């Protein structure tokens, strides 16, 4: 597994995972004078050349020998950043801006998406088939360069939640399609219904929503939460701002805060 982690004026940094006896270890791949290295004495023109070498010849780092034996293949729910194209600004929310864009699916089909650029904490960092006409995909952007341990912990928690909830399938739960973590910022890809956030809908239609419609909305949110509970998942922040609504007024609970 190889992922881009940091970029500076004179050096680019990647890490690849070395997993002896199923214990994960990160090894830094540095770029110096246009070449790549793990060991100071061995430079390579390209990343593929470096990987090929260490699949055949043991290397040594911090007095520990390593050899790349088994690649970690990309899962069906993992995407690359090259699969995503950003477009125009759609709006701004409490956690950042939303942009239009496209996502290239595994089948090669390109679908419209919405891209959520998230600021979890400004002092720390700035910031996953078929789809119906009323649905898009949202990509959650997290930029981690320069963030504190608290910011990193938040990112780790969110990515863990995304991996856990990617298998959830319910009419009243916003689906998570996958993640893109090969480089920064990190993406979490979700279904997004075009009606927008429920709290915004209620404010814009104050006095126009019938009591029966409100009860149906409450029922939809309750059914979504019931499904989450049946799958050993607690929402922790169920509110109108964290629910989405379709144009036909179906409410969906979003497990990732918008």
UniProtKB/TrEMBL annotation:
Q: Which UniProt keywords apply?
A: ATP-binding, Nucleotide-binding
Matches recorded under PANTHER family = TYROSINE-PROTEIN KINASE (PTHR24418)
Q: Where is the Protein kinase domain?
A: 84-258
**Which protein, by its recorded name, is this?**
Protein kinase domain-containing protein
Q: What is the organism field in this record?
A: Oesophagostomum dentatum (Nodular worm)
Q: Does the keyword Iron apply?
A: no
Q: Source organism lineage?
A: Eukaryota, Metazoa, Ecdysozoa, Nematoda, Chromadorea
Which SMART domains does the entry link to?
A: TyrKc
Q: Which InterPro entries match?
A: Kinase-like_dom_sf, Non-receptor_tyrosine_kinases, Prot_kinase_dom, Protein_kinase_ATP_BS, Ser-Thr/Tyr_kinase_cat_dom, SH2_dom_sf, Tyr_kinase_AS, Tyr_kinase_cat_dom
Which residues take part in binding ATP? 116
SUPFAM superfamilies, per database record: Protein kinase-like (PK-like), SH2 domain
Superkingdom of source: Eukaryota
DNA repair as UniProt keyword: no
What's an example of a GO molecular-function annotation for this chain? ATP binding
């Amino acid at each position: 597994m190889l992922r881009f982690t940091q970029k500076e004026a004179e050096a680019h940094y990647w890490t690849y995972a070395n997993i002896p006896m199923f214990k994960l270890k990160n090894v830094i791949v540095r770029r110096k004078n246009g070449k790549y290295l793990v060991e100071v004495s061995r430079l390579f023109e390209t990343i593929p050349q470096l990987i090929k070498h260490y699949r055949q010849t043991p290397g040594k780092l911090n007095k520990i020998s390593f050899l790349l034996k088994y690649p970690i293949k990309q899962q069906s729910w993992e995407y690359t950043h090259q699969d995503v194209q950003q477009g125009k600004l759609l709006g701004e929310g409490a956690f950042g801006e939303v942009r239009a864009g496209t996502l290239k699916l595994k089948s090669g089909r390109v679908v419209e998406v919405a891209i959520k650029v998230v600021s979890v904490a400004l002092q720390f960092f700035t910031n996953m088939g078929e789809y119906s006409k009323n649905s898009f995909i949202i990509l959650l952007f997290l930029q981690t360069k320069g963030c504190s341990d608290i910011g990193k912990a938040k990112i780790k928690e969110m990515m863990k939640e995304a991996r856990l909830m990617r298998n959830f399938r319910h009419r009243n739960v916003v689906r998570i399609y996958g993640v893109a973590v090969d480089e920064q910022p990190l993406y979490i890809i979700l279904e997004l219904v075009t009606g927008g956030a429920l709290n915004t809908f209620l404010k814009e239609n104050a006095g126009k929503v019938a009591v029966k419609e409100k009860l149906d909305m409450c029922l939809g949110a309750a059914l979504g939460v019931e499904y989450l509970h049946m799958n050993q998942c607690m929402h922790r922040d169920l509110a109108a701002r964290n629910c989405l609504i379709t144009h036909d007024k179906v409410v969906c609970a979003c497990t990732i805060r918008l």
